[in-house]
Design a protein that fits this description.
Blueprint (H helix, E strand, L loop, with lengths): L18 E5 L2 H4 L12 H7 L16 H14 L4 E5 L2 H4 L9 H16 L3 E7 L5 H5 L8 H16 L5 E6 L1 H10 L10 H25 L4 E7 L2 E4 L4 H16 L2 H4 L23 H4 L6 E5 L3 E6 L8 E3 L2 H4 L13 H10 L7 E5 L8 E2 L2 E2 L2 H19 L6 E5 L18 E4 L4 E4 L1 H10 L1
Parallel strand pairs: 1-2, 1-13, 2-3, 3-4, 4-5, 5-7, 6-8, 7-10, 10-13
Antiparallel strand pairs: 8-9, 11-12, 14-15
The structure holds 1-deoxynojirimycin (NOJ).
The site of 1-deoxynojirimycin has 9 residues, from loops.
Length: 449
């Protein structure tokens, strides 16, 4: 393949220790939904229900990573990517969510870890990337306080089985998104709605983040432990006091609510009054048990949001003005392409006391055209390059940022959006499972060489 021009950006500009990687998640790539003793997850159930996923797509096979992992690991190697982030499917290793353990599931992840290490690729495990075992959902899922114990039991099994070889761990992925979409809006699994479900899930997930991290620390003292948060740059639609206040509330909800208790700052109830309702579920000593001294925080930023005050939207009194309404360039997710968001987010999160910040996801869904065996996804290539420039800008100004992971290795199952939103550096033909490295993948390969 021809070399791709990388002359204007050099990986050396980011420093020798800067971490480069690519991110994935079990449910979005593995398929093999019931193979070798795997139990059902809430996403297996949700995708089987009519009308939940665009075009009736499901993830029974997804990218078939369960069977084709070796081929995909070879591709990561070919792309010169030194760090691979993947998640463990809880119900693959604990079919009912708690003991007993399914040895076949453990064997599967051992094969992945060993293969990565044999290729010189560092494994980064996400423990929870949204696929709660269905049997636990039957008991209330994250709305049940017992979920904190179930999660710790699962973390213990992962640490005991993989901790001898895996150094890098992420406890929970994007709690704000999966509790908001899955327990308040009902548009993601498990499809629950309402403020009560949401706030209970919020508190239990936050407790589980800290207790899961403590379990890891106890069982793998030398581990590099982090957890990931979605974040976004917020701007008011106008400079009226109403819009400015609305933007502050949305910023509190999307950027502060989940991280601040983890950092020992408590829930930001003063800036978002509805969070006071959390006090119904906070038990004595909980506030002390929410904090953990993470080695790193993973930030995942894709866009900015523009916010307008609105009396019609309950609890938050604000609405997001979509990219479409603002007539700005957007991705297939409808998210505005706005690279400076990453710079602003880095600046903002640098004001907290965080040891290391890693961008654990960034990337874009654009339509790909496969022609003569090639995919010229120039928009994605530019998206990544433009975001890397924003990281450089932040670094030059002295802000802390220690790594960048692209979302995602291959096109995959984009939750309620199904397969139409393609985020991969590698194109997947979902009929044949054929992989084709896109222009963006070739660019990243040459950049990293
Ligand atoms: C966030 C999630 O962690 C991931 O699962 C998702 O596919 C990407 N962002 C893109 O939406």
């Amino acid at each position: 393949m021809n070399k791709v021009d990388t002359s204007f950006l050099h990986k050396d500009q980011f420093g020798q220790d800067f971490l480069w990687g690519v991110s994935t998640a079990a449910f979005q790539i593995e398929g093999a939904h019931d193979a070798d003793g795997k139990g059902s997850s809430i996403w297996d159930v949700f995708t089987s229900q009519k009308g939940k996923i665009k075009n009736g797509h499901h993830a029974l096979t997804a990218c078939d990573f369960y069977n084709s992992y070796q081929n995909d690991i070879d591709l990561i190697n070919e792309l010169n990517i030194p760090n691979f982030r993947f998640s463990i499917s809880w119900s693959r290793i604990m079919p009912t969510g708690t003991h007993p353990v399914n040895q076949a599931g453990i064997d599967y992840y051992n094969k992945i870890i060993d293969s990565l290490l044999a290729s010189g690729i560092e494994p980064w495990i996400t423990l929870y990337h949204w696929d709660l075992p269905h049997d636990l959902e039957v008991k209330g899922g994250w709305t049940n306080r017992e979920s904190v114990k179930w999660f710790s039991e699962y973390v213990e099994v992962c640490a005991q089985n993989f901790g001898d070889r895996v150094k890098n761990w992420m406890v929970i992925n994007e709690p704000s998104v999966f509790t908001g979409a899955g327990y308040f809006l009902g548009i993601h699994a498990p499809g629950k709605k309402g403020i009560t479900n949401y706030l209970k899930a919020m508190h239990h997930v936050t407790l589980a983040t800290a207790s899961g991290a403590k379990t890891l620390r106890k069982l793998i003292p030398e581990a590099n432990i982090g957890t990931t948060f979605s974040c976004t740059h917020i701007e008011p639609f106008s400079q009226t006091p109403k819009d400015i206040e609305a933007a502050k509330r949305v910023d509190t909800l999307l950027n502060r609510t989940f991280i601040e208790p983890i950092l020992g700052l408590g829930y930001p109830q003063a800036d978002l009054p509805v969070l006071k309702k959390l006090n119904n579920y906070i038990l004595e000593d909980d506030l002390n048990n929410l904090a953990f001294d993470f080695d790193f925080i993973g930030l995942q930023c894709y866009t900015r949001e523009v916010v307008k005050s609105s009396l019609l939207i309950p609890y938050i009194g604000a609405e997001l003005i979509s990219a479409e309404k603002r007539n700005v360039i957007a991705t297939d997710m409808g998210w505005e392409v706005y690279p400076p968001a990453l710079y602003h987010v880095l600046k903002k999160f640098n004001s907290y006391n965080i040891k290391k910040i890693i961008i654990t996801e960034n990337g874009a869904a654009f339509p790909d055209v496969l022609q003569n065996g090639k995919v010229y996804d120039i928009k994605r290539t530019h998206y990544i390059q433009d975001h890397l420039e924003q990281i450089l800008k932040a670094k030059k100004e002295g802000y802390n940022v220690d790594g960048y992971f692209v979302w995602s290795l291959t096109d995959n199952f984009e939750w309620a959006e199904g397969y139409n939103a393609r985020f991969g550096l590698i194109h997947v033909d979902f009929d044949t499972q054929q992989r084709t490295i896109k222009h963006s993948g070739l660019w990243f390969r040459d950049f990293l060489s």
